[in-house]
Amino acid sequence: MEFKKSLNLELLVALLLNLHGVEQPRNPWSDGPEYIAQCPIKPGANFSYDIIFSEEEGTLWWHAHSDWSRATVHGPIIVYPKAGTTYPFPKPDAEFPIVLASWFKGDVMEIIQEALISGDEPNKSDALTINGQPGDLYNCSKRGTFKILFDYGKTYLLRVINSIMNEEMFFMVAGHKLTVVGMDGAYIKPLKTSYILITPGQVMDILVTANRRRSHYYMAARASEGVVYDNTTTTAIIQYSGNYTIPSTPKFPNLPNYTDIDAVTNFVRRIKALASKEHPIDVPKKVDTRLFITIAVGTLPCATNGSCTGPNGNKLAGSLNNASFENPKIDVLQAYYKKIHGIFTTDFPDKPPNVFNFTSDELSDDVVTPTAGTKVKVLKYNASVEIVFQGTNVFSAAENHPMHLHVGVPKNGWSAIRFKADNPGVWFMHCHLERHSSWGMDTVLIVRDGPTSATSIRKPPSYLNPC
Ligand SMILES: *[C@@H]1O[C@H](CO)[C@@H](O)[C@H](O)[C@H]1NC(C)=O
Ligand SMILES: *[C@@H]1O[C@H](CO)[C@@H](O)[C@H](O)[C@H]1NC(C)=O
Ligand SMILES: *[C@@H]1O[C@H](CO)[C@@H](O)[C@H](O)[C@H]1NC(C)=O
Ligand SMILES: *[C@@H]1O[C@H](CO)[C@@H](O)[C@H](O)[C@H]1NC(C)=O
Ligand SMILES: *[C@@H]1O[C@H](CO)[C@@H](O)[C@H](O)[C@H]1NC(C)=O
Ligand SMILES: *[C@@H]1O[C@H](CO)[C@@H](O)[C@H](O)[C@H]1NC(C)=O
Ligand SMILES: *[C@@H]1O[C@H](CO)[C@@H](O)[C@H](O)[C@H]1NC(C)=O
Ligand SMILES: *[C@@H]1O[C@H](CO)[C@@H](O)[C@H](O)[C@H]1NC(C)=O
Ligand SMILES: *[C@@H]1O[C@H](CO)[C@@H](O)[C@H](O)[C@H]1NC(C)=O
Ligand SMILES: *[C@@H]1O[C@H](CO)[C@@H](O)[C@H](O)[C@H]1NC(C)=O
Questions:
Q1: Is 455 in the pocket of ligand 8 (CB under 6 A)?
Q2: Interval 171-192 mean pLDDT
Q3: pLDDT score for 418
Q4: Is the per-residue pLDDT at 266 higher than 90?
Q5: What are the residue ranges spanned by the domains of the chain?
């Protein structure tokens, strides 16, 4: 991959390493997020990413990670079973990547800059797309609607990637059952369902068998509600081969309502790791490092002195444990590796500094203002880590938060994860709702080197982009 413009890639394999074994082992240099793993690649400059595949299998993806550039540059990465091995399910007859994305009429970089200055919500997207096309429900796109061909009796693998900026999505195929067999580069126990809920950053591998009457069927996706969200519906069409009367309009799926929280919960709670002999999991049973992290959207004082159009003249601010992340001047990785002081502090709290009724409907104003800074959490090599994420109702702005360790934290709910910190490096942890991340709902996990060179960060590449 070669990029000539100002882009940084975030390879979504990178943080999965903590969940699925060794991925981008010891190589944070090619992880991508700007000001975390590297400085921005200026227009005309270049940077070569060194991507080390190890245990991943299934669908991954890559995207630009500089401000809101993810909206424009992204794509699938497919890792097939190793030679001599096969899928833990019947081999599909064919496969299609299905990339969900956001379409903005305005310049996305201006949209986020405008919002960060005003302190208010950024403009919503104007459309959502499937493989680059919004679909028949938008006037602009009728001829271009993405179509795939089904032969009766065959089974297809849809590799669905949610690259959408700010919406968690329901996705369905009219008339057809879905069997989810993989997520984020790992297999899961086959999950039969009529719809999926896929959060930004996530990937799901789905089997669909062409066993319905030969006709045309819509696949469609729309949001599960957020505080502010694009409520349009994107579609693509499945056309069966053969001789039949083409319907005037394809059959449309009965998508869950925007507000249907039960549909979200009922799907998410059924996801289970495959945990077979060939694809084992290794969740630490003993934990030595515990983090309890509250997630909130509040406000910080306006930089331009009361002229913000966010709540009460302030600017919106995301936070984790009351710490709102500020981008440093030099990337955290370089500062850590070269021991440059004054770039970040290591005081990211292990628990919320104040305990309050996190999900109360009547929270007082004194929980609204976080502390701004570049706070990171340092983990010992090989630590067994447990993180409990707790959603909060600060500002009555409770929302689902797809935290980028690929775990969805439900609205006013919680999620717990465990992993072994066996990949030394500097890893960005953030909400994958892009506006939340832009507001500071981020932190960095630094995993220290182990005792040997084989358990330490690799040497930096010969060329690093200057800051
Ligand atoms: C990439 O940048 C390096 C360092 O500036 C330079 O030596 C090299 O020629 C560039 N390569 C391309 C393809 O532009
Ligand atoms: C955002 O939306 C507002 C209101 O519709 C519009 O005036 C503004 O130009 C938009 N910003 C960008 C960068 O497109
Ligand atoms: C789409 O086109 C139809 C028919 O021309 C029109 O009635 C409708 O208002 C248009 N919708 C939008 C969103 O422009
Ligand atoms: C979508 O949101 C717009 C406001 O942005 C609203 O006017 C419209 O009724 C909403 N549509 C649906 C189907 O909820
Ligand atoms: C398609 O089906 C129609 C009606 O059954 C038949 O008249 C026609 O010959 C068929 N066409 C082909 C190419 O088989
Ligand atoms: C979904 O919303 C529609 C109206 O928008 C309503 O008619 C329907 O009953 C709702 N379905 C459920 C299951 O709540
Ligand atoms: C901010 O506003 C206050 C009162 O309106 C004024 O005293 C102060 O000088 C302003 N500060 C800046 C940096 O503009
Ligand atoms: C916390 O808030 C919730 C929601 O308002 C309420 O049901 C619960 O009773 C509160 N708990 C305590 C301990 O005050
Ligand atoms: C967050 O930090 C600010 C600044 O230190 C403090 O005033 C506030 O009470 C803290 N809020 C919570 C909920 O811990
Ligand atoms: C890390 O932990 C594993 C067991 O989980 C152990 O086999 C290994 O020796 C440990 N490595 C170091 C350097 O502590």
A1: no
A2: 96
A3: 94
A4: yes
A5: 89-278, 289-455
Ligand 10 in reach of 285 Cβ (< 6 A) = no
**Closest residue CA from atom 10 of ligand 10:** 382
Domain 89-278 has CATH 1.20.140.10: no
Q: Same CATH topology for 89-278 and 289-455?
A: yes
Q: Which residues line ligand 2 (CB under 6 A)?
A: 106-107, 110-111, 114, 123
Question: What is the C-alpha separation between 318 and 9, in angstroms, rounded?
Answer: 23
Band (pLDDT 50/70/90 cuts) for residue 306 is low
Q: Both tokens of residue 17? A: 């390493």
> Which pLDDT score is estimated for 15?
29
CA 396 – ligand 6 centroid, Å = 24
Question: Identity (one letter) of the amino acid at 452?
Answer: T
- pLDDT at position 254 over 60: yes
Is the CB of 370 inside a 6 Å radius of any atom of ligand 9?
A: yes
pLDDT at res. 40:
84
pLDDT the model gives residue 3? 35
What residue owns the CA closest to ligand 2's atom 6?
A: 123
Among protein residues, the one whose CA lies closest to atom 11 of ligand 1: 46
Arithmetic mean of pLDDT, 247-272: 95
From the number of C-beta atoms within 10 Å of its C-beta (0-12, 13-18, 19+), residue 191 rates as: middle
CA distances for 166 relative to 125, 197, 222, angstroms: 9, 14, 12
76 or 51, greater pLDDT: 76
Which bound ligand lies closest to the C-alpha atom of 4? Answer: 1
Instruction: Copy the structure tokens of residue 40.
Output: 């921005």
pLDDT at 2 over 50: no
pLDDT, greater one: 312 or 348: 348
State which ligand 1 atom lies nearest to the alpha carbon of 2: 13
pLDDT at 365 > cutoff 50: yes
CB of 361 sitting under 6 A from ligand 8: yes
Q: Output the CATH code of domain 289-455.
A: 2.60.40.420
Give CA separation, 316 vs 121, 197, 361, 394, in Å: 8, 27, 19, 12
**How far does Cα 160 stand from its chain's mean position?**
13
Whose C-alpha lies nearest to ligand 10, atom 5? Answer: 382
d(CA 245, ligand 5 centre) in Å: 10
User: What was the pLDDT predicted at 60?
Assistant: 87
CA of 462 to the centre of ligand 1 (A): 12
DSSP, collapsed to helix, strand or coil, labels residue 222 as strand
How far are the Cα atoms of 247, 251, 335 from residue 348, in angstroms, in the given order?
Answer: 58, 51, 17
Is any atom of ligand 1 closer than 6 Å to the C-beta of 48?
no
